[in-house]
Amino acid sequence: MKILRFLMVPIAALIAMSSCSKHEIENYSGVDAIFFDQQHLGAAHESWIILKRLTHKNYTLVNFNKILESDSLLRIKIETTGYLKDYERPFRIEVVADSTDAIEGEEFELINPNLSILPGENTTFMEVKVHKTERMLEQGYRVQFRLIPGEHFTLPFGQKGIGNMPLRDSGDNDPEYGKNSDPSVHNLYITAELTQPDQWPSVPGHIHYLGTFSKKKYKLILELCKPYGWGILEWENPQKMPMDRLNIIKQTTASYLVKQYELGREHWVIDEDGSMMWVKTCPWSDGARPEDLVDKN
Fold this sequence. Notes:
This protein is α+β, with helices and mostly antiparallel strands. It has helices spanning 2-24, 48-54, 215-225, 232-235, 243-262, and strands at residues 34-36, 38-39, 56-57, 59-63, 71-80, 89-95, 108-110, 114-117, 123-131, 141-148, 185-191. This is DUF4843 domain-containing protein.
């Protein structure tokens, strides 16, 4: 009898818990909606709750300056609301031509515009291939995708639908890319534009070690660094760009610029602002104009 008494207590507790849960679950009364619900990694120091809210983004960014490859395969998440179904629910993706300036077939490829939510599922992914091109070095480009819901889904959120979607970032903290508030639309941004790396050396109150940053100068330095095996990824990592490497880069660049200067005016390297390109130890000053220098030839 003692054993039986111990067994009956947890069984009774389970019955009580079961009867309580029936009253706590509300029936779903919304619609079968479909929307983009892409997730990005958040900062490691954020709490799980904050990450869960802030990692849902309304855009995807591919920055070829941060990766070694010239091609990237993306999987962009698509989510649905409503009950799970026991049948397949097809829908489509279209490229919004008026809001797209990347070149389809050359800079991106939508793998399959015809997708489905499979039986028993409420999530799928669209796949996009992205390719780096030379013109991306000068500026970034956008591709805009739009959901075509078909007969099984609706798009209930509208242009101001962010507030109706829990755990979704409005993009307020990312004004450059996070301007879209319609979850039936997803923007893909692609860039390889050269921007000033964190390791571009300067000392407050002293002459810049490599002078004023320009994309043209940075591009030249990257070309001169190829024999050393130092590229963009090294510039983005302070541990891979110590002062001894910076000194080699400065000396190599200065040697090249002086050699071009000595070859004659038609070989002088002019920076984006019209001044002579300069790094420390060049015999002219930072910002010097070509007309103020003497052509040695």
